């Protein structure tokens, strides 16, 4: 049978992807350009027995998501940069309390209110370091409406598997544009549910890690398993501790569970387009990668060996592959709808192995292929 | 069809031009199976202010989702014409509402005038269908999708009670544009 297709906005695709992944709770405070995610969730969740709550602000919305998740629900919130700023303290709470949840950030410019209806990519470092303290981060950055659907599903999977908040970042352009989507059949995409405890309720310890990269199973509040949750550093039983070796173990494990080699291999996802023989790599993400792919095709026609490297997982950053590309290429060009953020991560990895140049735009218009082409020629 | 065909619908916010763009993209991508991307840009106002909707149609996947060199542009108001009737390719098409966008910007493209809002009011009796008249005209002028696909997409979008009204509006726009080209 032919697959169901529709012309859908990125934001709608996101909401439908969440429902596909088994999301049954949305707590939010609508904000442009993410509002349609909330709108569609308010229509779709009641159909699957889920709950939609519009909270009094972004902070409460994030709190509701953490609470819902602890009861066993797959929980989602959607916002834009200013909303993510408000959620940061609770994102940190979800990190340390190891609570799965997904945060959609449909990016506009900034800081503060900025230009609400314009696109931006200036929250990519916020997604990494927005909340205080040492912590791991997982963030994915789709470039098309179809990919918003599949990456939202994957974000839930990663949240459940690694017991932590996962951010999905896409900019206003992709959020608001419409493309044809083919809906995956139920079962076609992998859907992961968090591991449940198998021990007796009285033996359950919510942070009882078996190794320094382990993700312990999470029981549901309200079930026969009873446990304590706190934002303090805690021991395996969930109660606060200041014991040096326990704090150190927890802090390191919560990062290593994402950054160890096995986890990276599982989480990282990149697209490479004509990179094999490329003299110049354009490293781009989100809608800027679409301009970059256009630029690669134009440059190739002119005889310039260009390639596109597109991290779909922004965090953890694909360090190994970018290091290799830095050794292969004469130059890496990083187009971003910000004044230079991911380029510093690239610089940290490639050091002085190749030339490095940014292409930046923050005036509310997208980066054009022409701007990227000009910079590539300049740097070569 | 060329690799990319770029259309821009512009006018005042609330005139339904984003909807016109969506309908065209549905006709191209869902009905005709081509690749299409529809995007839009608008200000913070709910109504009024210039707004635009762009549709890129092609046989290959569309990378850059916004217009680069516009093949055909519609402007329903003078403000929209001044702001958005640019970047039109040499030999391209600009369709203006003769009452509300009387002044065409200079450029090496063909300019056509239709009293779109007036036609909606006098011929159909409802100004609300001006966007469907405009869509019919743009499809006739560009041939970017067939007349039938366009009509099918329009009718799929409107409630049962408004099918006849929109059918009439679409046909009117299509035929008036054919007369202009004849």
From TrEMBL, chain A:
Domain Pyruvate:ferredoxin oxidoreductase core: 278-371
Keyword match DNA-binding: no
Record-annotated Pyruvate flavodoxin/ferredoxin oxidoreductase pyrimidine binding domain positions: 17-243
CDD domains per record: TPP_PYR_PFOR_IOR-alpha_like (cd07034)
Entry-linked InterPro entries: 2-oxoacid_oxidoreductase, PFOR_II, Pyrv_Fd/Flavodoxin_OxRdtase_N, THDP-binding, Transketo_C/PFOR_II
Keywords associated with the record: Oxidoreductase
Annotated Pfam families: PFOR_II, POR_N
UniProt GO molecular function: oxidoreductase activity
NCBIfam families: PRK08659.1
Designated name of the protein: 2-oxoglutarate ferredoxin oxidoreductase, alpha subunit
Taxon lineage: Bacteria, Pseudomonadati, Thermodesulfobacteriota, Desulfuromonadia, Desulfuromonadales
TrEMBL record, chain B:
Gene3D superfamilies to which the protein is assigned, alphabetical: Pyruvate-ferredoxin oxidoreductase, PFOR, domain III (3.40.920.10)
Taxonomy, superkingdom: Bacteria
Span of domain Pyruvate/ketoisovalerate oxidoreductase catalytic: 13-175
InterPro entries found in the cross-reference section: 2-oxoglutarate_synth_KorC, PorC_KorC, Pyrv/ketoisovalerate_OxRed_cat, Pyrv_flavodox_OxRed_cen
Alphabetized UniProt keyword annotations: Oxidoreductase
Gene Ontology molecular function, alphabetical: oxidoreductase activity, acting on the aldehyde or oxo group of donors, iron-sulfur protein as acceptor
NCBIfam families for the chain: PorC_KorC
Protein name: 2-oxoglutarate ferredoxin oxidoreductase, gamma subunit
Organism: Malonomonas rubra DSM 5091
